[in-house]
Amino acid sequence: MAAITMKQARVGVDMTQREMAQAIGCGYTTYRKWEQNPGDMPVRVAQKFCEIVHRSYDEILFA
Fold first, then answer.
1. Which residues contact 61 (CB under 8 A, 6 or more apart)?
2. Shortest CA distance to 40 belongs to which of 4, 10, 6, 16?
3. What is the pLDDT of residue 50?
4. How many separate domains does the chain show?
5. Domain boundaries, position 38
6. Residue 13 DSSP code
7. What is the CATH number of the domain that holds 38?
8. Are 59 and 19 in contact (CB under 8 A)?
9. Any domain includes 1
């Protein structure tokens, strides 16, 4: 299975960037920056993101 982007995963659960930022406990601009450059996202936050979008870490491009 090919990995998907954070945006694709977020849209797949019908959430906006603002809603996702609130769900993982960060500011909107911080989340937006992570979505554009996922390599900067801390691992603990990436794990929370995976829980929210119901995907495993390996299914999402965090690089």
1. 3, 4, 5, 6, 38
2. 6
3. 97
4. 1
5. 6-59
6. T
7. 1.10.260.40
8. no
9. no
Per-residue model confidence (pLDDT) at position 44: 95
Would you state the structure tokens that stand for residue 57, as one six-digit string? Answer: 């870490």
**d(C-alpha 7, C-alpha 12), whole Å:** 8
Residue 10 lies in a domain: yes
Residues of the chain with pLDDT under 70: 1
Q: Would you state the pLDDT for residue 63? A: 78
pLDDT for the residue numbered 49: 97
Please state, in angstroms and as integers, the Cα–Cα distance from residue 50 to each residue in 13, 33, 57, following that order: 11, 17, 6
- Give the per-residue pLDDT at 2: 83
Residue 27 covered by a domain: yes
Q: What b-and-e string marks burial along 31-62, b requiring 16 or more CB atoms within 10 Å of the CB?
A: beebbeebeebeeebbebbbebbebeeeebeb
